[in-house]
Automatic annotation (TrEMBL):
Region Disordered, residue ranges: 115-147, 185-213, 230-301
Job of this protein: Part of the spliceosome which catalyzes two sequential transesterification reactions, first the excision of the non-coding intron from pre-mRNA and then the ligation of the coding exons to form the mature mRNA. Plays a role in stabilizing the structure of the spliceosome catalytic core and docking of the branch helix into the active site, producing 5'-exon and lariat intron-3'-intermediates.
Localisation: Nucleus
Protein name per the record: Splicing factor YJU2
A GO biological-process term: generation of catalytic spliceosome for first transesterification step
Any Pfam family matching the protein: Saf4_Yju2
Family stated for the protein in its record: Belongs to the CWC16 family. YJU2 subfamily.
Chain intervals with Basic and acidic residues compositional bias: 115-135, 197-213
Amino acid sequence: MSERKVLTKYYPPDFDPSKIARTPKHLRPTGPKTIPVRLMAPFSMKCTSCGEYIYKGRKFNARKETTDEKYLAITIYRFYIRCTRCSSEITFKTDPKNMDYTCERGAKRNFESWRDSDSAELKETDEQRLDRLEREEADEAETAERNAMEELEQKMEESKREMQVADALDEIMQRNARIERGEKGVKEDQALSQVRDLAREQREAEERADAEAARKAFEAANVERARLEEDAKLQAQHASKLLDSPAESPPAPTFDRVKKFKKPLVPGLVRKTEPAVQPPQPAVVSKPAGLDLGDYDSDDD
Ligand SMILES: [Zn+2]
């Protein structure tokens, strides 16, 4: 068993490697390299030698060959298959320009109505194609921008319409309210203006009430302040009095009714406050009752 594990091989002195008939793989002359692959027929075709139809999707053991052709740095491959009936060789290539395959030899591609051979897209040159792609990209960017603007405009329009709808609804509600109040028969415009006037009056009344409340509040604040000041003054007086006569107790608070100074009901009309020395007015007494109106003419007395 030891010979199984030999580390060196014995070459006799008369060994001549050139006499070995079979050349090793890496020394053999290389043609176009082909790889066996499994593929499906990419299009329907008809064998030119026997007329057999080979439909799209039929599976084949094929050879794949890398050609020297290129389209925009994309390698083009060639495939070799054999006819299923006569075994004649059929070849087709990839067509990256049209994202398709082209039948090369041994078969004829079936007519497909969606592939218009006269179409401009199939005929255009690389330059034209590049131009077209660039143009399309620019167009796309432009449309995106325009779409954003359109969206904005649409939004604005929508908000405007919403406001209009709200206004119309308001008007309708006002009209309904008027109708409910039984103001039919009046001209609509008049009624509407009336309703608006009412609303305005209501608003004004509310504003007036607010102003009044504010005024009162301020007045109350003033009164409070005045009262506080008065209190402070009184306290100061009291303190001084206490200093003068500490024994004297403060006067007890009285709950007597304090006579308030009556405000004149109407400004300018003041009742005279010397009723004790009421001078007799014989002229007035002697006047006949029917001529009482003359009293208004006070300048004459
Ligand atoms: Zn055939």
